[in-house]
Amino acid sequence: MKDRIEMIEFIRHQWYWVVAALVSGGMLLWPLLRGNKMSLTPAAATLLMNREDALVLDVRETSEWNNGHIANARHLALTQFDKRLVEIEKFKQTPVIVCCAMGSRGQTAAAKLEKAGFEKVFNLAGGIAAWSEAGLPLTRKS
């Protein structure tokens, strides 16, 4: 009983830390709860590119693309995505790996691709930042 009273007192006096822990835990669990099955690590993306000739689709803005991108990737900025989607229609049966700077724009683009009928769509978890952090190369060549 004494332990329970001490815990209640702790929560009462340190409520802001308890709230911060709950919010940060919820943010970590959100992708799992949302069913984020279509994310790939950089290593898994590399395997898919090599084994199944996956299309890498970079949805960052042109200035970001020009600073470095994955070799042989296609550039289709998310801001122009709906207008230019027809350019990649022929890849509907090909695995498509969508990448952006950190992964969030990639999720948006991946959802749009699935809605448009693309069968194998994946998002590069962590985006180009994770790719670089894994020590994988970027190029500035078009």
Automatic annotation (TrEMBL):
SMART domains xref list: RHOD
Domain of life: Bacteria
Residue ranges annotated for the Rhodanese domain, each copy included: 50-140
Keywords on record: Membrane, Transmembrane, Transmembrane helix
PROSITE patterns in UniProt: RHODANESE_3
Transmembrane segments: 15-33
Pfam families: Rhodanese (PF00581)
PANTHER family (UniProt xref): FAD-DEPENDENT OXIDOREDUCTASE, RHODANESE-RELATED SULFURTRANSFERASES
Record's protein name: Rhodanese-related sulfurtransferase
Source organism: Georgfuchsia toluolica
